[in-house]
C-alpha cells in the first residue's frame, strides 16, 4: 500500500516534470539550463563540436540494431558520447585541444545490424574500429576510404559478405586489417599483398584467387590466408619482402606447384602452416635456415623425396608435421625427431616406418613423372650452419640464379 502510493506520487512528479520540459522546450527560450526531453541535436550540449557531429550518426545506428542481448546500447544515450559503452574519445591528430570519437571497441558485444554503412564511414575522426564477434552483415561501404585516421580495422567473426572491400586499398594509413571469419567471396586484389600492412588476416572466408606473383610488404608480421580457396603456387617473392613475417598461415587452400627455395629467407618465421593444399616437389634444404621456426606444417600435400636433415636440425622445432604426403626417406636426425614426437611422417612412403601408405598407392603416385623448376636450388643452404653446408653460394644473401 505504502510503496504503491509512493510510486504513484513519483509518477505524478515525473509527469509534471515532463510537461514542464515540453513547456520550456516549446518556448524555445535559450540559456535556461538542460531541457528535460530529448530535443533536437542543436539544443544538446556536447563537450566538443566533433562529438555533436557524430551523435546523430550513432543514434541512427542504434536504431537499426536488431539484437543486443548484452544491453550494450542502453548506455548510448545522452550527450556524453565518450562514456557510451564501446566508444572512446581522444584528441584528434589535427587539433590537440579538441575531443573526438577516436576509437570503437565492440568486441564480443553480440550486436546484430544489417549494415555498418552510414555508421563507420560517417565517423570522421575514427582511428581504431574493432568489432569482432558480432553479427554485423552487409557489405563494407566504399566510403571508409575517406576516413583519414583509420589505421586498425577488425571486423572479424561477423557475417559480412560480398567481394573484398577494395576501398581498403586506398587507405594509406591502414596498418592492421582483420576480416577473417566472414562470408566474403571472390577474388582478392593483388595490390592488397603489396600494401604496407603490419597484419593481414583474411582467413576463413570464401576468397578464390590465384596468389599473385609479387606479394610482400616491408614489415608485415602476420599473414593468414587459411581456409579459403586460394590457388596457384607460393610465389618466389614471398621471401625478401616478407622477411619480417613471424606467422604464415596458408592451410586449407588449393595452393599447388613446387615450394620456392626462397622460403628459407623467412628468417623470423615461427609458424609456417601450409597444411592441406596441393603443394608438390621436395622440401627445399633452405628451410633449415629458419632458426626461429617452432611449427612447420605441410601435412596433407603431395610432397615427396627426402625430409632434409638440415630441417630436422632446427633446434626450436616443436611440431614438424609432414603426414599424408609421399616422402620416401628420413635420416638419423629426423628419426630422432620422430621418436620425440616432434616429427610426424605418418601416411607417407617411407620404407620401414609404421603407418605408411600402401605400396600400390606409392607406386601409383610415382608412376607420373614429377618435375620442379629450379631443382638445383633445392639443395642450397643459404645460411651458415655448423653441421651442414652446400655450395660456395651457401653464404650468399640472395637467391642464386638458377642454372
Ligand atoms: C538495460 O540497461 C538499462 C540501463 O542500464 C536498464 O534500465 C534496463 O533495465 C536494461 N534492460 C535489460 C533488458 O537488461
Ligand atoms: C580546436 O578544437 C577546439 C575545441 O573544440 C576549438 O575550440 C578550436 O577552434 C579548434 N581549433 C581549430 C584550429 O580548429
Ligand atoms: C602439430 O601440428 C599439426 C598440424 O597443425 C596438428 O594437427 C597437431 O595436433 C600438432 N601436434 C601437436 C603435438 O601439437
From TrEMBL:
Gene Ontology CC entries for this record: extracellular region
* Highest taxon listed in the record's lineage: Eukaryota
SUPFAM superfamilies the record matches: L domain-like
Residues of the signal peptide = 1-25
Report the principal subcellular site.
secreted
Enumerate the subcellular locations listed in this protein's record, separating them with semicolons. Answer: Secreted
Pfam families documented for this protein: LRR_1
Keyword terms, alphabetized: Repeat, Secreted, Signal
What's the name of the protein? Leucine-rich repeat-containing N-terminal plant-type domain-containing protein
> Which species is this record about?
Olea europaea subsp. europaea
The lineage, from the top, is: Eukaryota, Viridiplantae, Streptophyta, Embryophyta, Tracheophyta
Amino acid at each position: 500500500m505504502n510503496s504503491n502510493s509512493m510510486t504513484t506520487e513519483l509518477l505524478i512528479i515525473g509527469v509534471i516534470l515532463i510537461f514542464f520540459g515540453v513547456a520550456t522546450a516549446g518556448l524555445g527560450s535559450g540559456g535556461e539550463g538542460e531541457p528535460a526531453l530529448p530535443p533536437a541535436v542543436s539544443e544538446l550540449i556536447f563537450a566538443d563540436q566533433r562529438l555533436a557531429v557524430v551523435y546523430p550518426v550513432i543514434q541512427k545506428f542504434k536504431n537499426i540494431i536488431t539484437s543486443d542481448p548484452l544491453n550494450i546500447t542502453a548506455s548510448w544515450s545522452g550527450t556524453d558520447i565518450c562514456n557510451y559503452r564501446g566508444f572512446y574519445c581522444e584528441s584528434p591528430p589535427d587539433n590537440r585541444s579538441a575531443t573526438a570519437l577516436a576509437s570503437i571497441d565492440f568486441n564480443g558485444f553480440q550486436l546484430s545490424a544489417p549494415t555498418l554503412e552510414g555508421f563507420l564511414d560517417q565517423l570522421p575522426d575514427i582511428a581504431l574500429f574493432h568489432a569482432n564477434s558480432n553479427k554485423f552483415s552487409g557489405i563494407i561501404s566504399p566510403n571508409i576510404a575517406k576516413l583519414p585516421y583509420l589505421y586498425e580495422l577488425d571486423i572479424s567473426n561477423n557475417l559480412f559478405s560480398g567481394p573484398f572491400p577494395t576501398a581498403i586499398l586506398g587507405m594509406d594509413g591502414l596498418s592492421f586489417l582483420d576480416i577473417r571469419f566472414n562470408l566474403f567471396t571472390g577474388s582478392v586484389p593483388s595490390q592488397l599483398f603489396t600494401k604496407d600492412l603490419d597484419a593481414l588476416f583474411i582467413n576463413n572466408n570464401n576468397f578464390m584467387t590465384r596468389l599473385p606473383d609479387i606479394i610482400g610488404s616491408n614489415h608485415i608480421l602476420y599473414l593468414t590466408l587459411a581456409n579459403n580457396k586460394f590457388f596457384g603456387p607460393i610465389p618466389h617473392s614471398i621471401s625478401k619482402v616478407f622477411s619480417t613475417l613471424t606467422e604464415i598461415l596458408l592451410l586449407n587452400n588449393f595452393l599447388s606447384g613446387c615450394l620456392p627455395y626462397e622460403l628459407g629467407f623467412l628468417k623470423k618465421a615461427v609458424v609456417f602452416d601450409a597444411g592441406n593444399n596441393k603443394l608438390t616437389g621436395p622440401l627445399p634444404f633452405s628451410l633449415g635456415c629458419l632458426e626461429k621456426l617452432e611449427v612447420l606444417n605441410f601435412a596433407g600435400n603431395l610432397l615427396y623425396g627426402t625430409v632434409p636433415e638440415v630441417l630436422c636440425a632446427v633446434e626450436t622445432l616443436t611440431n614438424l608435421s609432414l603426414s599424408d604426403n609421399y616422402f620416401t626417406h628420413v635420416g638419423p636426425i629426423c628419426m630422432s625427431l620422430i621418436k620425440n614426437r616432434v616429427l610426424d611422417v605418418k601416411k607417407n612412403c617411407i620404407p620401414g616406418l609404421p603407418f605408411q601408405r600402401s605400396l600400390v598407392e606409392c607406386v601409383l603416385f610415382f608412376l607420373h613423372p614429377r618435375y620442379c623448376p629450379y631443382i638445383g636450388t633445392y639443395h642450397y643452404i643459404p645460411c651458415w650452419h655448423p653441421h651442414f653446408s652446400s655450395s660456395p653460394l651457401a653464404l650468399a644473401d640472395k637467391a642464386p640464379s638458377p642454372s
